[in-house]
User: Which sequence fits this backbone?
């Protein structure tokens, strides 16, 4: 069994964090007696009311087990068998889902480079062509991630421009909202201001990265954008029998302001970490810090020294860029301890290398 140090909070992923106490309490409260399975329960019914309150009167939620499942079900429901998805080269559906949209969903991903993670109409235009060409997979969906895999955030105007372009071409827009809460917290906007109000058709609504035990939801914002979600959820092995426990978590997160409080805190810890790194004046940060991630280039000896205590991910091994991610339970002292260790590693390990980075 891997050694576990409960007092150490790592910086590898917000998935490393435990379950928010309020979410855990909601699971316990739902653990009463027998209720119908597969979503015919009071918690799933309440979830429908919650998503309508947060995302608009036409919103319908389909709870699933994980983010990959949400993306695959959503994209399958939005596309015919010959359809294709335009997305960033850094998109989670392209880089971190082991080909699931293609293997399970049978979809073609048409990727474009996006140095800061954000698609633009000009970038989408590179792949949104060939309509009616039988030799080419037909572009039918633009998929964008909010916040992006590089920790950047789309403004409402940027999302709206992408939606307007896609709809003018007869395409639909999917948003991977695994960290939508962090984006909304950064911009100080309600969830619908970044989704429904901009023209997003279908949303993969995040939960696990913001304090849930497990679970996400496919939220259909425009019912005309999908077909057969309820059947695809089952055939894609994302229909949980005891759905009340997934729905209860999502209700706890989105019914009030828990989603916002948790995301605001994670963002604030990332901002604290970024400010501390900037104060060193010796390291290069690779991307703007707009959500809960910091991307910084570390000399190999410095990274090795930090890894003696903390876990974090290499992002680009060619230039030493690592990702440091904060979560809802990251504490200020966790950040300060990492910064203190980083300061000592720079002084004792390879100060010249840090300057070159």
Assistant:
């Amino acid at each position: 069994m891997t050694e576990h140090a409960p007092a150490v909070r790592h910086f590898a992923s917000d998935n490393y964090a435990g379950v928010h106490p309020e979410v855990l309490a909601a699971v316990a409260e739902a653990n009463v007696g027998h209720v119908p399975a597969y979503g015919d329960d009071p918690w799933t019914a309440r979830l429908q009311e919650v998503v309508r309150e947060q995302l608009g009167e036409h919103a319908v939620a389909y709870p699933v087990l994980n983010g990959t499942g949400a993306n695959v079900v959503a994209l399958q429901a939005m596309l015919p068998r010959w359809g294709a998805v335009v997305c960033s080269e850094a998109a989670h559906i392209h880089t971190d889902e082991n080909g699931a949209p293609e293997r399970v969903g049978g979809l073609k991903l048409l990727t474009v480079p996006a140095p800061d993670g954000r698609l633009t109409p000009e970038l989408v235009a590179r792949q949104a062509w060939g309509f009616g060409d039988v030799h080419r997979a037909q572009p039918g969906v633009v998929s964008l991630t909010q916040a992006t895999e590089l920790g950047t955030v789309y403004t409402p105007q940027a999302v709206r421009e992408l939606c307007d372009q896609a709809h003018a071409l007869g395409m639909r827009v999917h948003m991977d909202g695994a960290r939508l809460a962090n984006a909304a917290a950064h911009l100080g906007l309600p969830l619908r201001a970044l989704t429904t109000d901009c023209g997003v058709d279908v949303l993969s609504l995040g939960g696990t990265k913001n304090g849930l035990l497990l679970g996400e939801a496919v939220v259909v914002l425009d019912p005309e954008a999908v077909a057969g979600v309820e059947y695809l959820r089952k055939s894609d092995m994302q229909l949980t029998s005891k759905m009340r426990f997934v729905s209860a978590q999502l209700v706890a997160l989105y019914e009030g302001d828990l989603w916002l409080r948790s995301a605001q805190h994670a963002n604030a810890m990332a901002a604290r970490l970024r400010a501390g790194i900037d104060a060193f004046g010796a390291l290069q940060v690779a991307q703007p810090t707009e959500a809960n991630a910091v991307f910084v280039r570390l000399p190999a000896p410095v990274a090795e020294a930090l890894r003696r205590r903390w876990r974090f991910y290499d992002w680009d091994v060619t230039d030493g860029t690592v990702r440091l991610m904060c979560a809802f339970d990251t504490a200020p002292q966790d950040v300060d301890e990492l910064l203190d260790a980083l300061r000592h590693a720079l002084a004792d390990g390879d100060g010249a290398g840090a300057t070159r980075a």
